[in-house]
Amino acid sequence: MADTKTLIEQAYSAFNKRDINGVLALMTHDVNWPKVSEGGRAVGKEEVRAYWTRQWGEFDPHVEPLEITEEDGGRIRVRVHQLVKNLQGDVLSDSEVLHVFTVKAGLIAAMDIGDEADAASAPSAAFAHRS
To answer: Could you tell me which residue ranges the SnoaL-like domain spans (predicted)?
Structure first.
């Protein structure tokens, strides 16, 4: 669990620093990621890069892991504190969210929001207030 916990902590740290290359280095080439501010999914590192670039152009999200639990089959449940602000600094959402990661060969292969794999089909309410 120590290596997996470190992997997840490094990913959140790099995300919060807006270090796209740092986060992508921790992912598989075909990573499957929810586009929580848009709805749908990004598949592959370049789609994730493009999505985060768009997201950070509209919002200032900060996500801090509170509890990391490893399950069978390479799935990691992470309870996070998610703070989403607009670019003017106004708080749009301040909540706890569940992220569920799939890790393969020591890299992040997928992330889902909550327990539902298709919960990311629509944009999250946290990002509903566009700037």
So the answer is: 8-110
Which regions of the chain are under pLDDT 70? 1-2, 115-131
- From the CB of residue 70, how many other CB atoms can be counted at a distance below 10 Å? 15
- Beta-sheet strand order (sheet of 59-70): 41-43, 27-34, 107-113, 91-104, 75-86, 59-70
Residue with tokens 């706890």: 96
State the CB neighbour count (10 A cutoff) for residue 130: 10
Residue extents of the structural domains in the chain? 2-115
Half-sphere exposure at residue 73, Cβ-oriented, CA atoms within 13 angstroms: 6
User: Model confidence over 96-112: pLDDT tens digits?
Assistant: 999 999 999 999 999 99
d(CA 11, CA 129) in angstroms, rounded, equals 26
The structure tokens 């921790």 sit at: 26
pTM of the model: 0.86
Phi, psi dihedrals of residue 125, rounded to the nearest 5°: -60, -25
Q: Side chain identity at 19, as an amino acid letter?
A: D
What CATH architecture does domain 2-115 belong to? Roll (3.10)
